[in-house]
Amino acid sequence: MYRILVADAIKPEGLEPLLQASEIELIQKKIEEAEESLHEFDALLVRSATKVTEELIEKMPNLKIIARAGVGVDNIDVPAATKHGIVVVNAPDGNTISTAEHTFAMMAALARHIPQGHSSVKNGEWKRSAFTGTELYGKKLGIVGMGRIGGEIAKRAKVFGMDVLVFDPFLTSDRAKKLNVTSLSLEELLPLADIITVHTPLTSETKGLLNKDNLRTCKKGVYLLNCARGGIIDEDDLYELLLENHVAGAALDVFVEEPPAGNKLLELDSVITTPHLGASTKEAQFNVATQVAQEVLVFLEGNPVANSINLPAISKEQFEKVQPYYQLVKQMGSIGSQCMKEGINEISVTYGGEAFHFDTSILTKSLISGVFKTRLDGPVNEVNALLIAKERGVTIGEKISTDAYGYANCISVTVKGDNRQLDIRGTHVENYGSRIVSLNGFNIEFLPEGNFLYIQHTDQPGVIGNVGRILGDDEVNIATMQVGRKQAGGEAIMVLSFDKPLSDEMFEKLNELPDISFMYRMSL
Ligand SMILES: NC(=O)c1ccc[n+]([C@@H]2O[C@H](COP(=O)([O-])OP(=O)(O)OC[C@H]3O[C@@H](n4cnc5c(N)ncnc54)[C@H](O)[C@@H]3O)[C@@H](O)[C@H]2O)c1
Ligand SMILES: O=C(O)[C@H](O)COP(=O)(O)O
Q1: Nearest ligand to the C-alpha of residue 101?
Q2: Does the annotation mark 36 as catalytic?
Q3: pLDDT per position as a tens digit, 473-508
Q4: Which residue puts its alpha carbon closest to atom 7 of ligand 1?
Q5: Which domains does the chain have, with CATH numbers?
Q6: Which helix or strand (DSSP H or E) is residue 163 part of?
Q7: Most buried in the list 101, 110, 300, 455, measured by CB within 10 Å?
Q8: What's the pTM?
Q9: Which PANTHER family would you find in this protein's record (predicted)?
């Protein structure tokens, strides 16, 4: 049974996929109300109101996925979630149209003083000349951040006869051409635009992106809009420029602190606002709720999510192809870790053969998580694998090769420590399964599942018999046994599997046998 906490107001109709699923309990409560039971939840669903801090994450040790029913994830400590192995997903396009339409409504309201005129009439006044506005037609609209919402605004602005200038360092010339917009640097855009609207995420780079220094280069009388995130336009600087009438007016759907109690911008007639309503339409709320409900369901069923912030995107079809290799590399990582009884400095992997015509980074993360899972307490998975390796100074190497050592595909993993190195090769054959085919250069073949003993010894009569006798005397049943050697009389290996893990006592007894170089135990 999975328990899901819905901590913000998410449209219930959109949560239907989760409500219909068996083995899922959905609980709708604010974080403060769920304080006592936070440790029980497997998934957390939020909008922008709940701040998912590291402190909250640490109170939720069972948490596997955080889903944001919306776009901006600036209310979620994504690095902390990643560190704790928690997947973060959002609903990137469910509210695009609603937010673009809201921005456009705000732009028209700003240019035509609609909120001010409305209040005046409601107050019994009829001051027509006080609210003379400006046309949007023929004006230059500067869009900062040309993603999904920026793109929809550009399309609408064109229909209104506006000239669209955009600044987005990540905008390709192809997309700019397709949207028929002029791509400029921010320095070029600011002095040209009559109206500027921001649509970037809030990041350390975009915080204060528009500030009094660069806004002073704008035309006097410029209009500004922020329907993205509070703080992209510096609020104190905006206040100063509005007082000076350098900025003629501003439309704000978002604030640094929400609700913006005591914010001095609210005192100005030239500022019009809405209470973070960009995504607040029936359609957008249904879309984002459905998107995240489906993502959470897919994730809890063990399938790949489409819109993860901290995992590479992979389609269901691709994941199905990748899955056997995904398990195999995890087991290879686990073998490497359990055999290397010392600190690990380097993990390298080569994907050889025809099977790897896809982004192998998900496999490498699975391999690394296999290495660290047996060594660390707490969640270790492909979300935090790279971070764990980095924190421990472990070098990761990944190569793709056409050489598969005679197999259709072959994954070669080397785990290096201070004194030792372990080389493991594995392959996967459809309808047959995965096999480890070489250990430290010894050809061998075994299914990487169960409890194993790896013995490296001198190839001479009696060694295998001695091992069998000691195990038999203690009634330890050998489930499978594989042997391999490079040359007669040289070093050889045996890999034995058991129904139960081998006891410490038995391991010691076997270790005392002559002609045994070293032994490793592993459980896969
Ligand atoms: N008011 C609301 O209710 C509401 C609703 C939806 C989204 N939003 C906000 O709007 C933002 C944009 O949403 P979207 O769906 O268009 O996202 P998006 O990811 O499609 O677009 C963001 C764009 O910003 C650009 N960008 C990033 N850093 C930049 C920088 N330093 N300078 C200029 N451009 C930069 C990116 O290249 C990208 O094209 C979201 O992050 C969210 O915070 C607000
Ligand atoms: O980033 C978003 O999707 C919007 O800001 C919407 O936020 P909300 O879910 O709190 O309305």
Answers
A1: 1
A2: no
A3: 988 999 999 999 988 889 999 999 998 889 999 999
A4: 71
A5: 2-92+283-300 (3.40.50.720), 96-273 (3.40.50.720), 312-435 (3.30.1330.90), 450-524 (3.30.70.260)
A6: strand 163-167
A7: 110
A8: 0.84
A9: D-ISOMER SPECIFIC 2-HYDROXYACID DEHYDROGENASE FAMILY PROTEIN (AFU_ORTHOLOGUE AFUA_6G10090)
